[in-house]
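This follows on from our talk about sequence and fold. Can you supply me with one protein entry, sequence and fold together? Could you add the entry underneath, on a fresh line?
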Amino acid sequence: MYQLSPENRLSKVEAGFPVSHLDVERLLPEWRWLCPDKMQLLARNGFGDLFLCTDCGEVYWLDAGGGKCTQIAASEVEFRASAAMKETRELWFAEADKEAAALRGLIPNADQCIGFPIPLVFKERGTGNKPYLVDLYEGVSFLGDLHRQMRDVNDGEKVRLHIRPEPK
């Protein structure tokens, strides 16, 4: 089994959003259709995206808003090196968007992320789609369930949402 390196583990990333207290097994149930392997949580961003490491050491970016899980590094060392580059941090951690949200008073705590009333995957989200703070577990779970239900929908195809309570 791959073990995360102990020395200052992702100190730059963790400084903004600590992950050591988070339970990856609570974050991933609605994403197991896309991420079936056992994974460890390395980092996260302010919008609920997760950076996960497999037992083999490969690092994946779970893009919660886009509904994709992409390998971004062959190892934690490679991930850390890439995360040190400004362009990569912007891509992965959306630092400019996070700073813009902070200027509007949206500063997630360790258990929150920034969410949107109309998920970003929808074209109709428009300019009135004001971000808000949401519990990280709830936001990530909701998006995983939504993307699972839409996994066979083609890009640009219209969908109709029917909100129903979960069957018991």
